[in-house]
Amino acid sequence: MRISVIGCGYLGAVHAASMAKLGHDVVGVDTDPAKVESLAAAEAPFFEPGLPELLRESVGSGRLSFTTDTAEVADAAVHFICVGTPQRKDGYAADLTYVDQAVAALAPHLAPGSLVAGKSTVPVGTARRLAERLAAVQPKASLAWNPEFLREGLAVQDTLHPDRIVYGVPRDGVGGDAERAEALLDEVYAAPLAEGVPKLVTDHATAELVKVAANSFLATKISFINAMAELCEATGADVTALADAIGMDVRIGRKFLNAGLGFGGGCLPKDIRAFMARAGELGADQALSFLAEVDSINMRRRVRMVDLAREVSGGSVVGRRIAVLGAAFKPDSDDVRDSPALNVAAQLQLQGADVVVTDPEANENAGKVWPTLKFADSADEAAQGADVVLLLTEWKQFRDLDPVTFGKRVRSKRILDGRNVLNPQAWRDAGWTYRALGRP
Ligand SMILES: NC(=O)C1=CN([C@@H]2O[C@H](COP(=O)(O)OP(=O)(O)OC[C@H]3O[C@@H](n4cnc5c(N)ncnc54)[C@H](O)[C@@H]3O)[C@@H](O)[C@H]2O)C=CC1
Ligand SMILES: O=C(O)[C@H]1O[C@H](OP(=O)(O)OP(=O)(O)OC[C@H]2O[C@@H](n3ccc(=O)[nH]c3=O)[C@H](O)[C@@H]2O)[C@H](O)[C@@H](O)[C@@H]1O
């Protein structure tokens, strides 16, 4: 089947390469010529485990190509919209400029009977609005919403073997032929469906809501445990033991109960804010008022980490050498969008600390956002002469640090574990002052 993928960033590049892996003939479209050039040369423009191998295989075999010209995808049967929907600069709402531009560029090239399948995360109601616009240009095309649930760092595996596949198909006469939309998506996802991945078919609005509801639930789970961490800090209790204990209840589950510096990235923070903004537009703002609390609990963790760094530095960080381990918003990614680690590093620098950051993959991206920070190639190099070390992104190489040998690098053995991943006893036994969020 011939497929186009419009927007080849963290989501689209992986989707395009994975669809080619499933045997489809795929063309990726992006307005960024440098990204297209890199992908066309089978080079991943960002770090994502497994993506380089997929690109090499499918670009090499000719099943996957990339272009900046939307006209080249006119013969595709299904067009996936994967462009960005960032937070608007003037508030919480999602910026739909890229979605609107992508659909406007695509519409004149749509073949009768083709399907536009939105994957970008959008405010509820967007699919209907786009369907009305498409109908005016190519009434024989259909539009579905097919939200994506992949996690960065595990994106290839999540795309090829998802937990579920959701189709939002036209149900009220707007957006074309529901049966055809479902049949085309079934053809796209024939391999995972044959593996037994559950499929849910619903209307546009429900599919749009499923995506933001899922991300809101995940964000709420993280902020819940971080609120418990605040209580633990006030009482001397241990949030990691608390999470283990409540997580053993199968109704609760242990996943996404890792307390620490909280959530960041290009999705959870902006998605909960866009959801609140949309609820407000719909006159249902009260329904989501709890998400404002989820957001503020999350942002408080960053402030708390800066306060802790100041506290262990004797009341001020001015002139202190601080080594920050991690810049990406999570391990196994080079993404620094709304990264808690980078935010803390920058706050400490603004307060007068001499900050050296190291991240196995994200130094370059972090340097573009905060060019005044210093960067090191390894934890050992960053820690040279440090007064305090902060572990803020839990890459394996940081989790595995040996407190004895690592202790030889620093000036003062003080470590703040922003992700609760180190063994406190082992670090204390090696002479370190160990502090963490939500742990005594
Ligand atoms: N990153 C992730 O893990 C996931 C992202 N999503 C959603 O997917 C969407 C995309 O997210 P990311 O890939 O992270 O963003 P991104 O910023 O990495 O990629 C967006 C890409 O779209 C391109 N683009 C912008 N306008 C275009 C146009 N008119 N035509 C063609 N290309 C255009 C940009 O150049 C960029 O390469 C967002 O709505 C996001 O919420 C959903 C699930 C997972
Ligand atoms: O819409 C999206 O883009 C995606 O957003 C998240 O995926 P992602 O942002 O890649 O990463 P997560 O693994 O969800 O982590 C998000 C943030 O939460 C933090 N986190 C996660 C889990 C936890 O227990 N504690 C915690 O602080 C991570 O450090 C990270 O900063 C969702 O997990 C995906 O299902 C969704 O598709």
Automatic annotation (TrEMBL):
InterPro entries in the cross-refs: 6-PGluconate_DH-like_C_sf (IPR008927), NAD(P)-bd_dom_sf (IPR036291), UDP-Glc/GDP-Man (IPR017476), UDP-Glc/GDP-Man_DH_C (IPR014027), UDP-Glc/GDP-Man_DH_C_sf (IPR036220), UDP-Glc/GDP-Man_DH_dimer (IPR014026), UDP-Glc/GDP-Man_DH_N (IPR001732), UDPglc_DH_bac (IPR028357)
Gene Ontology terms for molecular function: oxidoreductase activity
Domain UDP-glucose/GDP-mannose dehydrogenase C-terminal: 323-424
Pathway: Nucleotide-sugar biosynthesis; UDP-alpha-D-glucuronate biosynthesis; UDP-alpha-D-glucuronate from UDP-alpha-D-glucose: step 1/1
Family, similarity comment: Belongs to the UDP-glucose/GDP-mannose dehydrogenase family.
Magnesium keyword on record: no
The keyword Oxidoreductase is assigned to this record: yes
PANTHER family: UDP-GLUCOSE 6-DEHYDROGENASE TUAD (PTHR43750)
Superkingdom assignment: Bacteria
Catalysis performed (reactions): UDP-alpha-D-glucose + 2 NAD(+) + H2O = UDP-alpha-D-glucuronate + 2 NADH + 3 H(+)
Gene3D superfamilies cross-referenced by the UniProt entry: Cytochrome c1, transmembrane anchor, C-terminal, NAD(P)-binding Rossmann-like Domain
Entries under Pfam families matching the protein: UDPG_MGDP_dh (PF00984), UDPG_MGDP_dh_C (PF03720), UDPG_MGDP_dh_N (PF03721)
SMART domains found in the cross-reference section: UDPG_MGDP_dh_C
Record keywords: NAD, Oxidoreductase
Record-given protein name: UDP-glucose 6-dehydrogenase
EC number assigned by the record: 1.1.1.22
